Amino acid sequence: MESPLLQYLFRLGDDSLILGHRLAEWCSRAPTLEEDLALTNMSLDHIGRAKMILEYAASFEALGRDADELAFGRDERHYHNLLITEVPNGDFAVTMVRMFLFSAFDVLRLDELSSSEDETLAGIAQKGVKESRYHRRHAADWIWRLGKGTDESHRRTQQALNSLWGYTAEMFDMDDTERVLLEEGIGCDLHTLREIWKKDVNEVFTNAGLTLPEDGYMHRGGRNCVHTEALGHIIAEMNYGYAMMQA
Questions:
Q1: Residue among 168, 161, 125 nearest 146 (CA)
Q2: Among 34, 136, 141, 178, which residue has the fewest nearby CB atoms (within 10 Å)?
Q3: Cβ 50 vs Cβ 81: under 8 Å
Q4: Which domains are assigned to the chain?
């Protein structure tokens, strides 16, 4: 059974690993060359962060596995990522809305973890928060442009927000793992971050002429390794590439 810290590291690492691979799917498919480079760089930020976290997890686990084995050697019932990170990219509006919703949360989480009692985790967070601030700002700029653009871009962005909102509550759930790490001074209180996040999110979408949906049914399960069918497709692709490298 995974210890609270190891499970926490998998949560952080898997969030970045899966979102990084989702963003990588835009390589050569973005609407502009500049955006193609931006999304690819953000993908590399997340995958690089996942590598650092999973390397730490591997050393803490002490079972002889390295970061690559942890990233590509598990089946989908052993990934701890938030469901919002595995949602298919959809159109460009879906990707930008997802990027903003997650990055606005990630900035707050990493900022708190930057002062963690776990020095290794704090060091990773201090580097990662700078990257996530850029991701948040980049996505916010696009949300304004799409929301204030054409009727079609506005419609698609509002539709993306409506479809993704039901995945946001999971980001702030405090279960036993989160509470134990908070008590030990390693994790952070996600409940206190929710209102700060919602104020930020509301301001950005309102300025873009968009409306936050009412809270309704919320999708959960990722933290407990219960996922959508979309994750299986991502992992199959990742594992195939890894297997080819090992052949």
A1: 161
A2: 34
A3: no
A4: 4-246 (1.20.1260.10)
